[in-house]
Structure formats: structure tokens, C-alpha cells
Design brief:
This protein is an alpha/beta fold. Helices cover about 30% and strands about 20% of the residues. Helix 5 crosses helix 6.
């Protein structure tokens, strides 16, 4: 089967467009290292393009009509965007769906401790990672701390040049003889992925015994650290380390929160640094979070840029895919179904349960998720005829799952033929692939969850090298073809489910 390399098809003008799209994507990637940050970035962009929040229209007399654009955010971690088409919603929508969470380390609820003169934050890894990849590299802390009075403190430390960074230590090679004999899965244990956040003891003018007398000169954080020390001593007769108290003082001074506020915090530890062009030819982008923001971004741009759709266009960007799409903000939640119900209620056709069921069953979807790009260094894990290659366009995965297609959505041939017809008409560069050899492994997406409504769904995303590593690589050409392919899907597909 002939495969085209997208780079060979571009004119000089198109090459400039590809580079501009890639530059904009890198900015999005840098500003969206957590789900909350991604939602903030997306909402700012879509509101500037005329999208209105669904909740502000509910209960009013506003009726949605063709061309109207609305969105619904759920818990600041998932979003559904809609552009109303000319066809009734009951006839179905064309949906793009991706996820905006990525593998990382999460800070535990009782995280701060001291050992051996270092202050640490205890962590719990999120999603599928090779734990040894997270040691001995600069890391940043992103997230929110919500205090009991409802105040939200946002943290983003480690990204600016003047910011400190953090790290997980590794054993020096000189002493690592036993460590090097371990399996890769055991070289670094999950409980060893604790973040070093400080090393300097808490001292007041080098004379701690005079601290109370000089309290007028102390900062709020220093006063808090001293009070915390007194409380510890009164309760247990012991005092925790001075380095730990120093970190408490800094956190209180800089962000105004206390140690107990970690209980209601969501702090994510991610690789520090910006996405960068990769290769002498600058054909690739190396960055954190391509899985799956490399599909989320062109999905968002596609629904912003597509014009005058026949079927209502929808873009869903969700949380929790990396841990099974669970929870209130994952795809298994009812938030999307509820949003569609509210949307229907604001149209002239109105809402009823049967109409909602018909809408969802008649919809068509691209589950926009990444595929494993062929890596010549690990060729034995791939079946080359059915692998995805960087630079060869948007990747269709008829099925995912593992081994005997377990946990898979297996797309219908009729639906795939309809997409082929549209893509060949629009000159979209695309390829088909599986995720590795049959018995080697596999993976899942959100496709099967939407398929439960009876709609036609197929996975369509971007090939990624180093998937789930702190730094992943993608081709700029594949990113651009994903955008073009998503627009073609929203504009052209008018498939009646069978």
C-alpha cells in the first residue's frame, strides 16, 4: 500500500503555514501543562472567537440557531464546544474528541517531610510512566491550592528562567552496582519519586532563641513556621527538621497557604521547559504532553475555523483518559450527555429523552488520540506494514485495545469508507496503523465510551515518538494534517449510522 510523505506534497506557501501552525501549537503546549491550564487557554481563545458559555444561556429566553457557538466547562478540567449546524440535532453531530491530561507526578495530600537535610514533597505518579525517566532532570510544579475560605492559589514554578526548578535524585553510577542489576520497572520505585524542594535550614538571624523578641522584624511566613514548630512540640514533644520549616515559611510568604492546605491542593509535577523544534531541519517538535494535546489543539482549531456546517460540530476535550477515563471529569462521566441535553433544550426542536438518544446514536466521531510512531531503534516491537510513521500524515486506528483487541472499539468499514472518500476529495494525507505488534502490548482511548451510544467512532490522531516519556516527539507535518483532516471531517461527513 502506497504511503505519501506529507512534506513532499507542500508548496512553499504551505510550508510557511505548517511552520506557523506549529509555532502556535508550541505556545499552547507551553501554556497548557495541566488540564486546568489547558482549559483556561482554550476558553480564552474560543471566547475571543465568539463562543458563549452554555450555563449563561440556560433559563433564559435565548434560542440557539444555525451558526451559534457555545461551550460548556466541567470542573475546570473538561470542555465541550458546539457550533450549531443547519440539520436538526436529532440527526446527529460530527464530533472530535481528545484528552488533555498527560502522565506526570502528583503531589500527595500530606507531602512535606525532611530527611537527611533535604526537604521533600511526596508524590504519586499519574498514568503509565517509566519511573526511571523522571529522575535527575529539572521539574516544575503546576497546579492549585484551595484554602478553606474558598481562595484559590495558582502555582506555576520552574518555567521562567528566574524560577527555581525541582528534581528527583538518582543514585550515582559509582554506587549503583546493585541498582543496575534490577529490572527497569524496579530501578526506581514509585515511593522513591519524591521531589527535592530545599536544603537550607530555617534560621532567624542565626539566633533562633531570639526569634520571639525580634518578631516585629519577621515575615508572615517566618512567624507561621515558628508557630508551627511550637505546636508540634506541644503536641508530640518533637520538632520536625529546620529545612522543612524553611519551606513552610517560604510557601506561606509567597503564596499565603499553610501546610494543612495541601489537603485541598492539586499540584502536578511536570518536566520544566518549553517545547522546542527538533532536528537540524526543524521538522519535529520535542515537548511535554503531546499525548494528547497534539490532538486536542488541532481539534479546537478545527471547530474554530470550520464554517457553516450542515451537521452540528462538536469538540470534546476531557480529563482522566490516562487512568481509564474515570471520575467526574473523565469521558465516562455524564457531563457530555448532560451538556448535549441542555444544548437541545435551547434549540427550537427542544429536548426530550428520545431525541437525545437519537442525537447521540446518529453522531459520528473521530476519537482524536495519538498512535505509536515507528521507531527504528525498537523495530522488533512494531509490525512495519501496519505501523504509523512520522511525517506520513494523520493516523487512523481501526481498533485499539491489546492482543485480541481486548478493550477496543473496532470501527465499521462503511464509516471508514465515508471518511476515505472525504479525505481523498480534500487531499488529506493519512495513514492507518496498529499500536505495535499483536502480542507485544496495546492501549486504549475514549473511542469505546462514545461508541456505547451506538455512534460510529474511529481513532484518528498523530504519531508520537517517546510516547509517555517526559519529552515526546511529533512531526509538524502530521500536526498540520490532523488539523486539515479534522476540518474535513466536520465539514463533509453526513453518514447515517447503520
Amino acid at each position: 500500500m502506497n504511503r505519501k510523505n506529507a512534506w513532499t506534497t507542500y508548496s512553499a506557501t504551505q510550508l510557511k503555514t505548517v511552520e506557523k501552525f506549529a509555532d502556535d501549537y508550541k505556545v499552547f503546549l507551553d501554556n497548557s501543562k495541566t488540564e486546568r491550564e489547558a482549559i483556561d487557554t482554550i476558553v480564552n481563545e474560543i471566547e475571543a472567537a465568539g463562543y458563549r458559555e452554555l450555563n449563561t444561556l440556560i433559563g433564559g429566553k435565548t434560542k440557539l440557531k444555525k451558526g451559534d457557538k457555545v461551550y460548556s466547562v466541567w470542573m475546570n478540567k473538561s470542555i465541550a464546544m458546539f457550533q450549531i449546524g443547519s440539520d436538526p440535532l436529532e440527526d446527529g453531530m460530527n464530533i472530535l474528541g481528545a484528552h488533555i491530561d498527560s502522565p506526570r507526578l502528583d503531589v500527595k495530600q500530606n507531602p512535606l517531610y525532611e530527611d537527611g537535610g533535604f526537604a521533600y514533597l511526596d508524590t504519586h505518579y499519574y498514568g503509565g510512566i517509566k519511573k526511571y525517566q523522571y529522575v535527575a532532570m529539572p521539574l516544575a510544579i503546576h497546579g492549585v491550592v484551595v484554602k478553606k475560605d474558598g481562595t484559590t492559589v495558582q502555582l506555576n514554578v520552574g518555567e521562567d528562567e528566574d524560577d527555581p526548578v525541582f528534581f528527583v535524585s538518582d543514585l550515582l553510577i559509582h554506587l549503583a552496582q546493585d541498582q543496575m542489576e534490577k529490572k527497569a520497572s524496579k530501578v526506581i520505585e514509585g515511593e522513591a519519586l519524591d521531589l527535592i524542594v530545599g536544603n537550607r535550614p530555617f534560621v532567624i538571624d542565626n539566633k533562633p532563641e531570639k526569634a520571639e523578641k525580634e518578631s516585629a522584624k519577621l515575615s508572615a511566613g517566618e512567624k507561621y513556621a515558628i508557630a508551627a514548630e511550637k505546636e508540634e512540640k506541644a503536641e508530640s514533644g518533637k520538632v520536625s527538621g529546620a529545612v522543612r520549616r524553611g519551606i513552610l515559611a517560604i510557601l506561606n510568604d509567597l503564596y499565603g497557604f499553610e501546610e494543612d492546605d495541601f489537603i485541598s491542593a492539586e499540584l502536578e509535577i511536570v518536566p520544566a521547559g518549553k517545547a522546542r523544534d527538533a532536528g537540524f531541519d526543524r521538522s519535529m517538535i520535542l515537548g511535554y504532553g503531546h499525548d494528547d494535546r497534539v490532538c486536542a489543539y488541532p481539534s479546537m482549531k478545527a471547530i474554530l475555523d470550520v464554517k457553516a456546517v450542515k451537521r452540528t460540530a462538536c469538540c470534546i476535550l476531557v480529563d482522566k483518559e490516562e487512568i481509564g477515563s474515570v471520575g467526574a471529569t473523565g469521558m465516562r462521566s455524564k457531563f457530555f450527555e448532560n451538556a448535549v441535553a441542555e444544548l437541545m433544550n435551547l434549540t427550537k426542536e427542544g429536548y426530550n429523552d428520545l431525541a437525545l438518544r437519537r442525537c447521540l446514536a446518529n453522531s459520528c466521531m473521530l476519537s482524536s488520540d495519538v498512535n505509536a510512531g515507528f521507531d527504528p531503534s525498537y523495530a522488533s516491537c512494531f509490525e512495519k506494514k501496519n505501523a504509523s510513521f512520522l511525517g506520513q500524515g494523520l493516523v487512523f486506528s481501526k481498533f485499539t485495545g491489546s492482543r485480541g483487541k481486548s478493550g477496543s472499539n473496532d470501527a465499521n468499514a462503511e464509516f471508514i469508507a465515508e471518511i476515505r472518500k472525504a479525505y481523498d476529495k480534500d487531499g488529506i494525507i493519512y495513514q492507518t496503523a496498529e499500536l505495535g505488534k499483536v502480542d507485544v502490548g496495546g492501549g486504549g482511548t475514549i473511542a469505546y465510551i462514545l461508541a456505547l451510544y451506538g455512534m460510529n467512532v474511529i481513532d484518528a490522531g498523530v504519531a508520537v515518538l517517546n510516547m509517555h516519556a517526559p519529552w515526546e516527539a511529533i512531526s509538524k507535518a502530521d500536526l498540520y494534517e490532523a488539523y486539515r483532516g479534522y476540518i474535513s471531517f466536520l465539514k463533509n461527513i453526513d453518514f447515517k449510522n447503520q
